[in-house]
Amino acid sequence: MDYIENILDAIGEWIQRAIDTLLGPSAEPEPEAIPIPVDDRRFR
What b/e readout covers 4-23, taking b as 16+ CB neighbours within 10 angstroms? Predict the structure, then answer.
């Protein structure tokens, strides 16, 4: 049974690579921006 699962996984990966090649990679959400603290005080 493991042999059949390995073959199905390999076929699935091959199909996904073929789709990515033909249609472009699947859309990935953009990472959320990390706020950076800024010392905005003016020196006098």
Answer: eeeeeeeeeeeeeeeeeeee
Q: How far is CA 37 from the centre of its chain?
A: 28
What are the helix (H) ranges across the chain? 2-23
| Alpha-carbon gap, residue 19 to 17, rounded angstroms | 5
Q: 36: which 2 tokens?
A: 């950076």
Asked if residues 10 and 2 have their Cβ atoms less than 8 Å apart, the reply is no
Average pLDDT taken over every residue of the chain: 83
Single pTM value for the model? 0.49
Residues with Cβ within 8 Å of residue 20, at least 6 apart in sequence: 26
